[in-house]
Design goal:
By secondary structure, the chain is α/β, with parallel strands linked by helices. It contains nine helices and nine strands. The relative contact order is 0.11.
């Protein structure tokens, strides 16, 4: 993108910092757009685009929690591409879904939802990844350890190593083998069963944010932090949680609870039990 003369990237305010840092490392200026509630607000996106030159701009559009764009947002993104702005779609959360929005490039970090130690891909014209180093191999081993024995300690071991490694490299053979072994059809069926069991038991005061998608169930509740702590004590932790960056000046949702992608019937019932108790 930089080689094309792109200098500005428009990003959603509600996003993980690791999604934004790669653009900053390329020296691009970050323009934030408000979200409503988790997807880009189309009116604010139009205002941001009006401040930018089309041939120097990228829109980094994210299908957060697997959500698909509204008609209004789809129209703005389509018109944007027609004017020469590049649209890059982050489909990390919608990797199990059928995405409906066209883009010039898509990126996916598959390990976010799949039980694999690593692998991300970019569908578009990019440079070849660098060779793996021993530090990259150590990170792979740490991620494998986390997958086999998930805990705070194994999670932090991964994060400590990942914080130092930003250069894209080829995936390990172990990761490729793990990806090939994923039963995608079976996984989608398990996700739908999990979502259905929890959704039918949600108490008043809880609403589903990402209805009808094949992704972790995300619930809006005024007691999100309390519920997350209670579920954590039972060993139930969702894969997606973003703390508000200190630098963010725009609105940030604090009432969202992400549940695990796939759960046993007992775990589903525990989620309902915790949420019901909190809202009673």
């Amino acid at each position: 993108m930089v080689r094309e003369g792109r200098r500005t990237v428009i990003v959603p305010t509600y996003a993980c910092l690791t999604m934004i840092v790669p653009w900053q490392l390329e020296g691009m200026r970050i323009e934030q757009v408000a979200c409503d509630p988790v997807m880009m607000d189309p009116a604010d996106l139009e205002r941001a685009l009006a401040r930018c030159s089309a041939d120097e701009t990228v829109v980094f559009y994210c299908e957060t929690f697997g959500c698909q764009p509204s008609r209004a947002l789809s129209d703005v993104l389509g018109e944007t591409r027609g004017r020469g702005v590049r649209v890059v779609a982050d489909r990390t959360h919608s990797v199990l879904c059928d995405s409906v929005c066209a883009a010039d490039m898509e990126v996916v970090s598959a390990r976010k939802l799949l039980s694999i130690p690593e692998i991300a891909w970019v569908d578009g014209k990019v440079d070849q990844p660098s060779r793996r180093s021993e530090a990259d191999n150590a990170l792979t081993r740490a991620r494998q350890q986390f997958l086999s024995t998930p805990s705070v300690a194994t999670f932090e071991a991964v994060e400590d190593l990942a914080d130092e490694l930003w250069t894209p490299v080829s995936p390990s053979q172990d990761a490729m083998t793990a990806l090939e072994a994923v039963d995608m059809a079976g996984l989608r069926a398990d996700v739908r069963r999990t979502r259905t069991r929890v959704e039918v038991g949600l108490p008043p005061g809880c609403t589903v944010v990402n209805e009808g998608v094949c992704a972790p169930l995300v619930v809006r509740t005024n007691h999100a932090d309390k519920a997350a702590d209670a579920l954590y004590s039972r060993g139930i932790v969702g894969p997606i949680h973003w703390d508000r960056p200190a630098s963010s000046r725009l609105e940030w949702p604090s009432d969202l609870l992400c549940l695990p992608l796939v759960m046993t019937p007992d775990q589903c019932d525990q989620c309902i039990e915790v949420l019901t108790a909190i809202h009673s």
